[in-house]
């Protein structure tokens, strides 16, 4: 029997309204509504159209939805120029549910390192609760950022392998095309697993680092708050707090102040190029940090921003085309372990998801050729310890 909920989920995963899907399939919007709500079942011809369009197996529409429902749309934080529409947020929620479904599958056969980000989050909540009345929020955030940096294993002299360290300490990080209004988003699952989704539109490595730190800030500072219920002022406040966290996290005060001592003209954007190589942080962000640390006067900061505009550095900074953009590796490495150790096959994964290979590859942002190379026949059912190597290798 056709299960309407499966169509709703796959439609939302692709960000389509009922009207848009009806147009794509040359049926009425009323028909899509009836399919999803169980009033009528699609014809065999319609089901073939649906599975071909969405790249799912025939059994997908005849199996009860097994998405775990562990993602709450109210808790998804966005690094965005504008607030997301309700439809867009619902689509991202379902997208995260599918990713959570896949990570649950991987976690059932792979023993990942301890979820240290959960412990950092718990410590951050306790610190905020115990000090909210005595210490101003910026100082609280500064402390949490410093402790988080130490806890995930970053030294205080560079930001190499930032993405790797966040993945290693418990986060699942994916890439997705958000368009040009959203840079990233993050949330906790009901099982306290942190997810970060990065936009995969062309962006510099240093801006990606800031997106990562910003979303880590949301995960630690704004644990499961109802973001959809915030008014504009409160929403802008949590965005400022995430930015404050990111700045403190990426540029430790003592070490960065020492670096500023070596700069000739602190209001000259070009004076920060060598520091950009070291910290993998944008020139604009470093100057703002210098300003908030009172190493740059208001007049100097105004001059800096004028120079930034004159040099068109707000669009493209020096080294943006040279510093390598790091991609998430945890999921790819997990699949590689499963396939190479013959613990699971590609066919096992497709059977679990009820996807065709094209959709699986798109969802986890791994090229189809990777899965094609790892098709295996023999498989065993055992648990494998996921061992993370040194220097960012999985």
Structural key phrases:
434 Repressor (Amino-terminal Domain), single chain, elongated, alpha/beta, two-stranded parallel sheet, Arc Repressor Mutant, subunit A, 52% helix, disordered C terminus, 394 residues, Rad_response_metalloprotease, 4-stranded mixed beta sheet
Could you explain how this protein is built, in words?
- This protein has 18 helices and 6 strands.
- The protein has 394 residues and is an alpha/beta fold.
- The protein folds into 4 domains: 59 residues, 434 Repressor (Amino-terminal Domain) (Orthogonal Bundle); 178 residues, Orthogonal Bundle (Arc Repressor Mutant, subunit A); 58 residues, no CATH class; 56 residues, no CATH class.
- The strands form 2 sheets. It has a 4-stranded mixed sheet with strand order 1-4-5-3, with helices on one face.
- Strand 4 and strand 5 form a beta hairpin.
- It starts with a helix and ends in a 9-residue tail after the last strand.
- The C terminus is likely disordered.
- InterPro entries: Cro/C1-type_HTH, IrrE_HExxH, Lambda_DNA-bd_dom_sf, Rad_response_metalloprotease.
- Pfam families: HTH_3 (PF01381), Peptidase_M78 (PF06114).
Short précis:
This protein is 52% helix and 7% strand.
CATH topology of the largest domain: Arc Repressor Mutant, subunit A
Number of domains: 4
Strand order of the largest sheet: 1-4-5-3
Distance between the termini: 43 Å
Structural class: alpha/beta
Element-level helix/strand string: HHHHEHEHHHEEEHHHHHHHHHHE
Biggest sheet: strands, sense, closure? 4 strands, mixed
Shape descriptor reads elongated
The percentage of residues in β strands lies in: 5-15%
Write down how many β-strands occur, each being a DSSP E stretch of 2 or more residues: 6
By DSSP (H or I, 4+ residues per run), the number of helices equals 18
Which regions are unreliable across 5 or more consecutive residues at pLDDT < 50? 378-382, 388-393
Main CATH class of the largest domain: Mainly Alpha
Helix fraction bin: 40-55%
Q: In angstroms, what is the radius of gyration? A: 23 Å
Q: Can you tell me the CATH architecture of the largest domain?
A: Orthogonal Bundle
Mean pLDDT: 92
């Amino acid at each position: 029997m056709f299960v309407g909920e499966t169509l709703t989920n796959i439609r939302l995963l692709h960000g389509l309204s009922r009207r848009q899907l009806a147009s794509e399939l040359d049926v009425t919007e009323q028909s899509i509504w009836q399919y999803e709500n169980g009033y009528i079942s699609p014809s065999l011809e319609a089901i073939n159209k649906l599975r071909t369009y969405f790249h799912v197996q025939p059994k997908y529409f005849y199996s009860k939805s097994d998405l775990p429902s562990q993602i709450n749309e109210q808790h998804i934080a966005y690094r965005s120029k504008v607030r997301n529409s309700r439809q867009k947020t619902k689509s991202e929620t379902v997208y995260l549910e599918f990713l959570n479904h896949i990570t649950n599958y991987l976690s059932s056969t792979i023993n990942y390192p301890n979820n240290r980000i959960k412990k950092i989050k718990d410590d951050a909540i306790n610190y905020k609760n115990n000090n909210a009345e005595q210490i101003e929020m910026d100082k609280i955030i500064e402390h949490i950022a410093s402790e988080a940096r130490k806890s995930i294993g970053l030294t205080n002299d560079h930001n190499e392998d930032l993405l790797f360290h966040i993945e290693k300490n418990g986060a699942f990080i994916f890439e997705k095309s958000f368009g040009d209004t959203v840079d990233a988003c993050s949330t906790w699952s009901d099982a306290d697993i942190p997810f970060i989704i990065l936009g995969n539109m062309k962006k510099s490595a240093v801006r990606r680092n800031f997106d990562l730190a910003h979303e880590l800030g949301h995960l630690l500072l704004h644990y499961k708050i109802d973001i959809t219920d915030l008014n504009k002022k409160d929403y802008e406040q949590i965005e400022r707090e995430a930015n404050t966290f990111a700045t403190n996290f990426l540029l430790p005060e003592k070490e960065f102040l020492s670096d500023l001592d070596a700069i000739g003209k602190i209001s000259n954007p070009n004076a920060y190029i060598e520091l950009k190589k070291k910290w993998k942080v944008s020139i604009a962000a470093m100057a703002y940090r210098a300003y908030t640390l009172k190493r740059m006067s208001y007049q100097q900061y105004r001059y800096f921003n004028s120079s930034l505009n004159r040099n068109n550095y707000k669009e493209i900074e020096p080294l943006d085309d040279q510093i390598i953009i790091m991609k998430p590796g945890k999921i790819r490495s997990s699949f590689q372990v499963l396939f190479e150790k013959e613990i699971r096959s590609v066919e096992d994964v497709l059977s679990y998801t009820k996807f065709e290979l094209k959709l699986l590859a798109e969802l986890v942002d791994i090229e189809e050729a990777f899965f094609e190379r790892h098709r295996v026949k023999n498989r065993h059912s055992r648990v494998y310890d996921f061992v993370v190597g040194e220097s960012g290798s999985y």
